[in-house]
Design goal:
By secondary structure, the protein is mainly α. The chain has helices spanning 2-8, 11-30, 46-68, 75-99, 107-127. α2 runs antiparallel to α3, α3 (46-68) crosses α4 and α4 (75-99) runs antiparallel to α5. It is elongated.
């Protein structure tokens, strides 16, 4: 199990996970509303989904940067990653409003994205010293 975790925390693996995850959520957010699968057995608020998605996004990229920087990260770097994740969420909302007829921008989605990014940073900051490579 330890070898698997070390492999998952490898720089190339983390970069691949970050890029694939970012591409996946970009695709999901720009799909027309009719293309999004409906999950009938679980009723989860849309804003909770936004928080969770951006929590994972910021956590992945902070972990990548942490490993890339030889287990060093400071508040400035964390702030930059948070701002990039929030800016990414804003761009997605603008794309939804301008280019996808069945989707629209929502300020509460942006607030949920920001909350998720901040929570991801908070959790990362609290567990970063337990990340072993």
């Amino acid at each position: 199990m330890t070898e698997l975790i070390k492999k998952l925390l490898g720089l190339n693996t983390l970069l691949s996970i970050g890029l694939v995850y970012t591409l996946f959520i970009t695709t999901a957010f720009v799909l027309p509303a009719s293309e999004i699968p409906k999950v009938q057995f679980v009723h989860i608020n849309d804003k909770v989904v936004h928080v969770l998605i951006h929590f994972i996004l910021s956590f992945i990229w902070m972990t990548y940067f942490f490993i890339f920087n030889k287990r060093k990260i400071n508040y400035k770097n964390i702030l930059i990653i948070i701002l990039l994740c929030v800016f990414y969420g804003i761009i997605i909302e603008i794309i939804q409003q301008l280019l996808i007829a069945s989707r629209h921008a929502d300020i509460f989605d942006i607030l949920a994205n920001t909350t998720g990014s901040l929570l991801g940073a908070l959790v990362f900051w609290n567990v970063k010293n337990r990340i072993k490579t």
